[in-house]
Amino acid sequence: MTDKKSKSVFMEGAITSEFIGNSIYKHQTKTNIGAHNIFLGQVRADVINDKTVLAITYTAYLDMANQKFHEIRESAFEKFELTCMHIYHSLGTVKAGEICLFVFVSAPRRKVVFEALEYIVEAIKADVPVFGKEIFEDETHQWKVNS
User: Fold this and answer.
1) HEC profile for the chain?
2) Residues 6+ apart with CB under 8 A from 142
3) How far is CA 44 from CA 53, 82, 102, 131, in A?
4) Bridge-partner residues for 104, per DSSP?
5) What is the pLDDT of residues 27-67, one digit of tens each?
6) Residue 16: Cβ within 10 Å count
7) CB atoms within 10 A of CB 61
8) Architecture of the domain delimited by 10-143
9) Residue 147 has pLDDT above 80, yes or no
10) Who has greater pLDDT, 122 or 8?
């Protein structure tokens, strides 16, 4: 692992399609890349106990969460031949249908990006202390359980 200070992966609110598109666009100059893979986590309008989820409000233990994201990133670079990786997660309220998690990996070959992306997303769900409070149409709320 490197001693480089880890940067925050968090963004306030939803991750926009413009941000995602711009992230992809910036990689056109990296001609050693042969494959990209993207995971977009979107807030679902689940129906729970006859109530529809309108949004999720995300909170996190920021220092601990950023450290875990950094560890996942370093581990993925050790395990897979990646050229680059970007992870962004929302904080605050994200409405149903909006993007809350954006993971973008690049490598010289396609097989690597599929394997790496699954590894990274599963590690995020298992290890990163990010919490979501589901907000229902009747303005009640409950803590989200990851599935």
Assistant:
1) CCCCCCCCCEEECCECHHHHHHHHHHHHHCCCCCEEEEEEEECCCCEECCEEEEEEEEEECHHHHHHHHHHHHHHHHHHCCCCEEEEEEEEEEEECCCEEEEEEEEECCHHHHHHHHHHHHHHHHHHCCEEEEEEECCCCEEECCCC
2) 48, 133, 134, 136
3) 7, 30, 15, 15
4) 38, 86
5) 989 999 999 999 999 999 999 999 999 999 999 999 999 99
6) 13
7) 13
8) Alpha-Beta Complex (3.90)
9) no
10) 122
Give the Cβ contact number of residue 65 at 10 Å: 22
- Type of residue found at 58: Y
CA angle 97, 98, 103 (to 5 degrees): 120
Domain ranges of the chain: 10-143
pLDDT tens for each residue of 18-32? 999 999 999 989 999
**How does pLDDT run across 81-124, given as a tens digit for each residue?**
999 999 999 999 999 999 999 999 999 999 999 999 999 999 99
Which amino acid appears at position 15 of this protein? I
Considering the entire predicted model, what is its pTM? 0.92
First to last CA, the chain: 30
Alpha-carbon torsion (63, 68, 74, 76), positive or negative: negative
